[in-house]
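To: structure subgroup
Subject: Chain for Friday's discussion

All,

I'm putting the inputs and outputs inline so they're searchable in the archive.
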Amino acid sequence: MLARDAWLELRGRAVFWLSATVLLVASAMAAFPGLFAALGPNERCDLRMSKRGPQAGALFGYDLQGCDYWSQVVHGTRASVVVGVAVTVFALLIAIVLGLVAGFYGGLADALISRTTDVFFGVPFVLGATVVLVAFPDHGMWAMTLVLVLLGWTTMTRLMRGQVIAIKHMDYVAAARMLGASDRRLMVRHILPNAVAPVFVVAMLNVGNVIAGEATLDYLGVGLQYPDVSWGLQLNTAQTFFAEHPHLLVFPALFLTATVLSFLMLGDVVRDALDPRLR
């Protein structure tokens, strides 16, 4: 019933359709870049065309290496979207497991998980990732994903724990326990479905934050490295030439901003739809 009411609320919101459309296009670019770009990453680059602006045959102009900038920006979508979604999915799974155990059992398990969460929560997201990635310079996209997962699960874990503590004392949970339901069944069948909705909304918002964090790390030079292609790397390269060649910064910045804002707006409208008090 809650999912049906939420859908009825969402389908009447223009913000939902706008953000969903942008994210659908971004996901398609990440999964199937060949549908949008005629060239592969760093393909058919000609230094004689270096830094030329938009013109016939090159919608976004050319980058420093003389590569078609439209194709480069399209291929840059994959790193940001894959890292953002992968980090959020793995962090969400960690948060669900740890939040369920801590909130349901309490006691020593809760104390250990909560104190560990506090330790990781005290490490700044971008700064902590920067320190780790600088210490291991020969990293790739999946190594960076692992680092961001280790630093990105704390907020959702705290929220999940609080939801579980509030729900485990409900009458229907007590009734199921009296009927002989095991701890595992109580957590999976009765508590989890009613506790996960707010955590899922935070996860949706988190995707945008992770994408912004990944682009920041690339921009600072501690994330992905050439010949990888990403929006953050493109912004890093473009900063020196912005005054003379603004297209180098404007186009990846527009794609990055649109994607991050779409995740944030989608998370906001889903939160409003799932909480009747906010309608």
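Points worth raising on Friday:
The chain has a mean pLDDT of 90.
Residues 2-43+61-278 form a domain with the MetI-like fold fold (CATH 1.10.3720.10).

D.
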